[in-house]
Amino acid sequence: MRIGQSEPRQSRPTLLIILVVLSLVMLTVYFREGDDGVLHGARRVTLEVTAPLARAGTAITSPIRSIGSFFEGLGASRERVQALEEQNAELRTRLAELEEARQENERLRALVDFAEERKFAKLGAEVIRRPISIWEGVILIDRGSNDGIEPGMPVIAAQGLVGQIAEVSAHSSSVRLVTDQLSGVAAIVQSSRTPGVVRGSVDGSLSLDFVDRTYLPVEGDVVITSGIGGVYPSGIVIGDVVAVDDRHGELYPRIRVASRVPISSIEEVFVLVGSVVETDAGEIE
Question: CA separation (Å) from 271 to 36, 134, 214, 238, 248?
């Protein structure tokens, strides 16, 4: 006999067999008896007793399940939000491209309509450099001698006169603006036909000089090219009279003119490369 060691337990298969047989018998009786049977009644009593415990368990675990569903939904929502943000960015980029194309079409249409109305022989060009200060009176365009551009050719925009070709290279040209201090344009006041000369200045402002004070213009009068001298065709808008100062003791009145051309944002122009088919100094609004 060994001290300190217990006898190994012997398996009892007989008990297991009895329990299995008893379970089969109860299942057979349960399915064969009616709803008013003993086993059905016992089942109903068991459900009634355990129902409050089941509800309590559901109530206890519900917040945990809700938190899990929340975090699961939060991850899905973040992915959806990110996808929507990416789609929105793409749509905004496309919208910006379409808006840019629309604005460019409008500018070019206005420019072409203006040139066609005036019967100008023209060549379109893009502005590739604008003045960086009000004291710089020159812009650069992407047309040059290879395109038939020559110094002295007039340059216009849809709003009116821009200036004159100053220097030319093979693929680009500089345009001296009418607002430059070295520029001078033979002009007339549209309403009264009073002649004068529009000149630029160091600060980019325009003045209408040598006007007879007998025929003084008023604010709002339109000033156009007269065609005298053969440099510019007649009838091109230069700008509008914005101030008239008829000081006594001076030979001519001081008349300030504002150009209609937005030099700071101009993008396209026309170079008048040939003679004008038809000139007309009629009314231009």
Answer: 106, 23, 36, 16, 41
**Which helix (H) or strand (E) element contains residue 266?**
none
Per-residue pLDDT tens over the stretch 108-133: 566 666 555 556 678 999 999 988 87
Same domain flag for 132 and 184: yes
Count of other CB atoms within 10 angstroms of residue 265 = 8
Given a contact cutoff of 8 angstroms between Cβ atoms, the answer to whether 258 and 240 are in contact is yes
Average pLDDT over residues 53-63: 61
Chain mean position to CA 45: 74
- Nearest partner of 122 among 97, 95, 92, 157, judged by Cα: 157
Domain that residue 184 falls in: 121-272
Residue 18 lies in a domain: yes
CB atoms within 10 A of CB 261: 23
Separation CA 21–CA 51 (nearest Å) = 29
Q: When comparing pLDDT for 37 and 281, which is higher? A: 37
The two structure tokens encoding residue 76: 């899905």
Q: What angle do CA 59, 62, 68 make, to 5 degrees?
A: 165
Quick one: tokens of 126?
A: 């893009």
Q: Which residues pair with 272 in a beta bridge?
A: 122
For residue 162, the SS3 value is strand
In a domain, 193, yes or no: yes
Is 165 a member of any domain?
yes
Average pLDDT over residues 142-152: 93
Q: How far apart are CA 38 and CA 85, in angstroms?
A: 65
How many independent structural domains does the chain possess?
2
DSSP state of 276: -
Residue 66: what pLDDT? 62
- Is residue 38 located within the same domain as residue 100? yes
Q: What is the pTM of this model?
A: 0.57
Q: In angstroms, how far is CA 188 from the centroid of its own chain? A: 40
Decide which of 118, 148, 178 is a domain's last residue. 118
